[in-house]
Amino acid sequence: MPSYTEDDQPQCVTELLQTSFMQAPPKEVLDQIIVDFLRRTSNDALKLVVCACCGREANGNESTLLSLSTIPNRNLLKPHEAHPAHDLYDGILLEPAGIDLRTKQASFCEECLNRLKIGKLPPLALANNMWIGAVPLELSVLTLAERLLISMYFPTAYVFKLYPKHAGSASWDPSQLYDGMKGNVSTYPLDPALVADMIDGKLFPMPPKILCCTVAVTFITPSGQHMKGLPSHLRVRRIKVYEALCWLKKNNPLYANITISGERLHLLPEDGIPTEISQNVRESNDVNAVIREHEGYVPVDTGEVTESAMEDDSIVLSSGKKHSKSSFCLRISKILKEMF
Question: What are the start-end ranges of the H helices in 67-175?
Answer without folding.
Answer: 110-117, 137-140, 144-149
